[in-house]
Design brief:
Largest interface: B-C, 59 and 58 residues
Largest sheet of chain B: 5 strands, mixed
Chains: A alpha+beta (289), B alpha+beta (159), C alpha+beta (782)
Order of helices and strands of chain B: EEHEEEHHHH
Distance between the termini of chain A: 48 Å
CATH superfamily of the largest domain in chain B: Beta-grasp domain
Largest sheet of chain A: 5 strands, antiparallel
Strand content of chain A: 15-25%
Radius of gyration of chain A: 19 Å
Oligomer: heterotrimer
Shape of chain A: globular
CATH topology of the largest domain in chain B: Ubiquitin-like (UB roll)
CATH topology of the largest domain in chain A: Uridine Diphospho-n-acetylenolpyruvylglucosamine Reductase, domain 3
Number of helices of chain B: 5
Strand content of chain B: 15-25%
Shape of chain B: globular
CATH class of the largest domain in chain B: Alpha Beta
CATH architecture of the largest domain in chain B: Roll
Radius of gyration of chain B: 16 Å
Number of strands of chain B: 5
Strand order of the largest sheet of chain B: 2-1-5-3-4
Number of strands of chain A: 14
CATH class of the largest domain in chain A: Alpha Beta
Strand order of the largest sheet of chain A: 4-5-10-6-7
CATH architecture of the largest domain in chain A: 2-Layer Sandwich
Chain lengths: 289, 159, 782
């Protein structure tokens, strides 16, 4: 399992990296490499130039400012996993990163890669959809913000131009009475989700839903946002009946494809089950439990 | 395609070489440097037999290019023993029959030793999670977990 | 003076020293000057004609030296080779491929990377042919033939037992049960794949083959037979099996890659290395299981089991390359009457060709014993549930009783010893069986699905007595050669080959027990055919029962000679001498004695006149019978009604393997075996679509459990020695893999029985369990 030959550059600045991508038609960014290098070993991907981002400074951080939690695109998954800030205040993200691949892969895998791949099997896209996150992209014409809801276009297709690089993902800063959860069916550690649900909720002073975000992993060509389920819950009590109804709506929003992991019906059912459970857990956490 | 000059510090010793960009770190270690303690077990970064420490963090060296390790510190199984004496994790594996065929063992120990540095008082479940990126077919994991717990206990005793 | 550390000591392992330091010598660690690399072009089609192989681009790739194809090998008549079941296997095809990922051509390059580039550059034109994947359809008249050199897709029919009496007993039975049980194809997937380094020495007409093999001598003989016409003969072939990163049966067969590497080395005169990658390993190497069993039991309403009738379709892939003793194409499948006293039984197995990789035996199963145990343990539960009897009760009622041993089963096996009720009772006590049944009833009321499954298996290992057992005609004896040095240390060599079982540690303990030489003074070697005595290798849990026995017998020969030397030294009669560990002494005068060390020294410096000097012995052990380890496993599961996930709450394993040489190592074998039983029960599976495309050719698709999924095994033991084995040991390497799947399957079916479920085939994946729940309206989506 040997990759074909390719050229390689490891620029020290972002603009050099952007320029390299622009100049070379068949180029790709090397971030964590934990998805890309195996693909190249199977000769399923054959970029002739790899632009290694690992030497560019300033792309790895986790910090709250200006009403956001900003995570640099090259931040390793393990850094997110061990971040006290994330485990205390961003439980949905904390849950997600724990079931993302395996602990050793997480030492190199980056949040930027997991988001930019636009691969429905990746876990963080649905989580970002539930958070209502946005991403920062840098290209030859400078920087722009892309809301995550506009980011996923199709299978392996994101809104990024070929010579744009994701530099940061921004999650709305944690607010009181909010909490989240990520539930994933993996047949073993390292498996992709048969289905997974990301839920992020904020409760009002009466304990009703002020806002809800629900993202679905691997039940469609892209990560999906269960908008109808979210809208249904807004303003409503966190009762079992409401959770179940929202779950039914989330299951309807899913577009699962039957494969070795399960039938369409099974995956839809998983979405329903996990939506109820994830919402319940999110509510519990929002209440300080 | 072009060759790249790299300088990698491995188990404290500096190694310079000119390598193709596509050369995997695991092959650089095994083929170029004849350090065959790190093993290859799969094609999909699933098994962890190739685990080494890169700047102190366990990584799967079959999914890392040698050029990425330029200027970095790599630690392999060959660097665990001190002055020919088995270190704590190695001793723990020996005392607790944590290996049978030995093939997954180097990678397992590189993961476990880094884990114990970060979490010196782990629960059994934390240990199992920490080594879940390293597959073993022989031991059923029971004695590997026991060995890691033993090493943690020894560390706590000051041993 | 060092401790003897004989039987029963949890001696720490000798092997660890090199493995812990990363100084193991696995096949891919070998580098020879001028060594070339072999990589293989493989077919994307399951069945196709090869129209043309275009090698120009490959040959133009820098570093590529040659592309080898079937017609090239045919010039030397090594394009085909015999299988261990006397069928024919292609090394490289002449014109047709028979399974996806079959070897089509081989590329020789100066290094691994260029060989891979060469493989990517070879272009092959194929003409796809109709594919046969369903063994039942393969047997229908008019089915596409997999083999042009055969009449049909039916390989062989094998049957055993009393058909008439069995049919009679079924006719007259009060209760009968019948289920179709499919045990899917799985793969050993040891963490090290297969490979070799072939070194042809033209000057001395000598071949050295370093190879991942569990049976080096058998391979040497087979290579000599295959290449005899090329001028190689057996004394000019040396097989060296170095450290092996897991075997489990997968490193018993001879794969095409080995033969091509040998041919390439002979042609080029350079050493040639071939190491398969994981995809090749999973997709093309020998598999295990793939048995479709129609299983029937007959008995009485009071729970007495009387008769058994099993009919099996065995999917062998495109050639029968299973590694069975030659008289038993279905291995020891007829151990399937299990631990129960059946009055009559009849089994039949039909082997079938399909467009899949060849094989059938590799996966820690003791020659089809896992299949047999799964069937009988599942059906015992089915019978119990039908008559409303508890699973433990029906087993206790039907167990062969301790006083019935040695016991001859209805299918002709003579079980050496056993105490089945004691093992089951112990397991039940350890797990708190009666309380669990109460809990299960309460939970069922609340709609919570909890299950308890038992597997009370009898294993059959130690193949085997020469009367019945051979592989390609080679009798399956074991061997041990011991030489004691003047300073009282020893070296012992065996015809087996450890792949992690710790022979360097445990064999020494057997000899230490017999001779009183400390185990740490005994060097154990295996795997080099130039030095080790001839043996049939390590698989099917045979090392302890067969070669371990040889170690004891060779030791006793040495002790007999030692006694003569002692008599000479003590100026006493042999009859007046007594032995205690490590020492002969004069009866009644215990101070007058000689240690084994003193005797050894005398063997070289002061031996009796007329006696040969030195102190050594060899024994080729022909076991009088197989050995029958056994056990009872109990598994408790909780089913998630929302996701279909099966959570194993507890698993108790009580094993009886007779005398335990090294308890620590025995437990390690059981732990590993349990996880290798759990894995096929829960997640491992290789499948093919209708075009013969494999699913399960990498570790994202073929699922091996991590430390997170693998349960926390609880072990217990009973000890019932084997009466015919010199040290009473039985062997244990595969017991847990054999016994565990049925315990888990029984637990899951038990959890769902009240819904009307009778059988669920492994693997018990979440999707499968959910579909069952859904079918019975029992899912709970929250």
């Amino acid at each position: 399992m040997i990759p074909p030959s390719f050229d390689y550059v490891a620029p020290k600045t972002l603009s050099e990296a952007v320029a390299a991508l622009g100049q070379h038609e068949n180029s790709k960014v090397l971030a964590g490499g934990q998805s890309l290098i195996p693909l190249m070993r199977f000769r399923l991907a054959g970029p002739t130039l790899l632009v290694d981002l690992n030497r560019v400074e300033g792309l790895s951080y986790i910090e709250e400012k200006d009403g956001w939690l900003g995570i640099g695109a090259m931040t390793r998954q393990s850094a997110i996993e061990h971040s006290q800030l994330v485990s205390e205040k961003y439980s949905l993200l904390a849950d997600t990163v724990k079931v993302l691949s395996d602990p050793v892969v997480r030492n190199l895998g980056t949040v930027g890669g997991n988001i930019a791949n636009a691969d429905p099997v990746n876990d963080q896209p649905a989580t970002m959809l539930a958070y209502g996150a946005e991403v920062v992209a840098v290209g030859p014409d400078g920087e722009r913000i892309i809301p995550i809801t506009s980011f996923y276009l199709d299978l392996y297709q994101s809104a990024l131009a070929r010579d744009e690089i994701l530099t940061e993902v921004r999650v709305p800063a944690s607010r009181p009475r909010s909490g989240g959860a990520y539930l994933k069916l993996e047949r073993k550690v390292g498996d992709y989700a048969t289905a997974a649900v990301a839920a992020q909720v904020e409760l009002d002073a009466d304990g009703n839903f002020a806002s809800v975000g629900i993202g679905l992993t691997n039940v469609g060509l892209t990560a999906l946002k269960a908008t109808e389920a979210e809208d249904f819950l807004k303003g409503k009590a966190a009762s079992d009946a409401n959770l179940r109804q929202a779950a039914a709506l989330a299951a309807e929003a899913a577009q699962p494809i039957a494969d070795v992991r399960g039938s369409e019906e099974y995956k839809r059912s998983l979405v329903k089950t996990y939506t109820v459970r994830a919402l319940r857990l999110a509510v519990q956490r929002a209440k300080g439990g | 395609m072009s060759k790249h000059h790299i300088n990698v510090t491995i188990n404290g010793k500096s190694h310079e070489a000119d390598v193709e960009a596509r050369l995997l770190l695991v092959h650089f270690l095994r083929e170029n440097l004849n350090m065959t303690g790190t093993h290859i077990g799969c094609d999909t970064t699933s098994c962890g037999a190739c685990t080494v420490q890169l700047n102190g963090k366990p990584v799967k060296s079959c999914a890392v290019l040698a050029v990425q390790a330029d200027g970095m510190e790599v630690k392999t199984v060959e660097g665990l023993a001190q002055n020919g004496n088995l270190n704590l994790i190695q001793q723990a594996m020996h005392e607790n029959h944590g290996l049978q065929c030995g093939y997954c063992t180097p990678g397992m120990m590189m993961t476990a030793s880094a884990f114990l540095e970060r979490n010196p008082h782990p629960t059994e479940d934390e240990i199992r999670h920490a080594i879940s990126g390293n597959l073993c077919r022989c031991t059923g994991y029971m004695n590997i977990v026991k060995a890691v717990q033993y090493a943690a206990d020894k560390m706590a005793e000051g041993g | 003076m060092a401790e003897v550390q004989g039987l029963g000591h949890s001696r720490k392992r000798v092997e660890d020293a090199r493995f812990l330091r990363g100084q193991g010598n696995y096949i891919d660690d070998f580098k020879l000057p001028g060594m070339l690399h072999l990589d293989i072009v493989r077919s994307p089609y399951a069945h196709a004609k090869i129209k043309a192989i275009h090698t120009e681009k490959a040959m133009a790739t820098p570093g590529v030296l040659a592309v080898i194809d079937g017609p090239t090998l045919q010039k030397y008549n090594v394009h085909n080779m015999p299988t261990l079941m006397s069928d024919t296997q292609m090394v490289l095809p002449i014109d047709t491929v028979k399974y996806q990922y079959q070897e089509v051509a081989a590329v020789l390059g100066t290094d691994r990377y260029t060989a891979a580039d060469g493989v990517a550059a070879v272009e092959v034109d194929y003409e796809p042919l109709p594919v046969v994947v369903d063994p039942f359809k393969a047997l229908e008249p008019g089915a596409t033939k997999v083999r042009d050199d055969k009449e049909s897709n039916h390989i062989w029919h094998w049957e055993w037992g009393d058909k008439e009496k069995t049919n009679q007993d079924f006719e007259n039975a009060e209760v009968t049960v019948k289920e179709n049980i499919y045990i899917p194809r799985i793969h050993v997937a040891s963490i090290e794949t297969c490979g070799c380094v072939a070194k042809w020495d033209a000057t001395n007409t000598h071949l050295t083959l370093w190879m991942t093999t569990q049976a080096p001598h058998a391979i040497r003989t087979v290579v000599a037979l295959i290449t005899g016409h090329l001028g190689l003969s057996e004394e000019r072939i040396r097989i060296i099996s170095p450290d092996i990163g897991g075997g489990f049966g997968g490193k018993v067969p001879a794969y095409p890659g080995y033969v091509i590497a040998v041919a390439a080395s002979i042609v080029t005169g350079a050493p040639v290395k071939w190491i398969e990658n994981r995809t090749e390993n999973l997709a093309a190497d020998s598999f295990g299981r793939d048995y479709h069993i129609t299983a029937e039991l007959a008995g009485k309403k009071d729970g007495t089991l009387t008769s058994l009738r099993f009919k099996t379709i065995a999917d062998h892939g495109y050639t029968d390359a299973a590694a069975q003793p030659s008289k038993f194409p279905a291995g020891m499948f007829h151990i399937c009457t299990g631990s129960y006293d059946f009055k009559s039984a009849f089994v039949e197995v039909d082997g079938v060709y399909t467009n899949k990789p060849p094989g059938g035996i590799a996966y820690r199963c003791s020659f089809r014993v896992t299949e047999a145990v799964h069937a009988i343990e599942r059906m015992t539960d089915v019978f119990a549930q039908k008559i409303g009897m508890d699973a433990a009760e029906i087993r206790m009622k039907n167990f062969i009783k301790p006083e019935q041993f040695p016991y001859k089963s209805a299918l002709g096996w003579e079980y050496d010893s056993g105490d089945y009720p004691a093992a089951l009772r112990k397991a039940m006590d350890m797990i708190g069986y009666e309380n669990l049944r109460k809990e299960q009833a309460e939970k069922r009321e609340r709609g919570e699905f909890m299950g308890i499954g038992i597997s009370s298996f009898t294993e059959i290992v130690g193949a085997g007595p020469s009367k019945h057992f051979d592989i390609l005609g080679l009798k399956m004896f074991g061997s041990c050669e011991i030489r004691v040095h003047p300073t009282g240390k020893a070296i012992a060599r065996f015809g087996t080959k450890s792949q992690g079982q710790g022979h360097e540690t445990t064999y020494a303990q057997i000899i230490a027990e017999e001779l009183g030489i400390p185990a740490e003074h005994i060097k154990v070697e295996e795997g080099d055919t130039d030095t080790a005595p001839y043996g049939l290798g390590t698989y099917a849990s045979r090392s302890t029962p067969v070669d371990g026995a040889a170690a004891a017998m060779a030791s006793r020969k040495i002790r007999a000679k030692a006694k003569q030397i002692a008599a000479h030294l003590l100026e006493a009669n042999e009859e007046d001498l007594e032995w205690e560990t490590g020492r002969f002494f004069v009866k009644g005068s215990p101070d007058q004695g000689k240690t084994i060390q003193e005797i050894a020294f005398a063997a070289y410096t002061n031996h009796p006149q007329g006696m040969e000097g030195g102190l050594e012995a060899v024994n080729y052990y022909d076991p009088p019978n197989l050995t029958y380890p056994f056990g009872s496993y109990i598994c408790v599961v909780d089913i998630d009604r929302g996701t279909g996930e099966v959570k194993i709450r507890r698993f108790v394993a009580v094993d009886d393997c007779g005398v335990r040489i090294n308890p620590m190592i025995v437990e390690g074998q059981i732990h590993g075996g349990l996880t290798m039983g759990f894995a096929p029960a829960m997640m491992e599976e290789i499948t093919y679509d209708e075009n013969g495309n494999i699913h399960g050719s990498n570790f994202m698709d073929y699922l091996l459990p991590t430390a997170v999924e693998s349960p926390k095994w609880e072990l217990g033991e009973t000890v019932t020695p084997s009466p015919h084995h010199p040290i009473g040991a039985k062997g244990v390497g595969e017991s847990a893999t054999v016994g565990a799947p049925a315990a888990i399957a029984n637990a899951v079916v038990d959890a769902l029985w009240h819904l009307g479920v009778r059988n669920i085939d492994i693997p018990l994946t979440p999707r499968k369990i959910w579909e069952v729940l859904h079918k019975h309206g029992a899912t709970l989506e929250e």
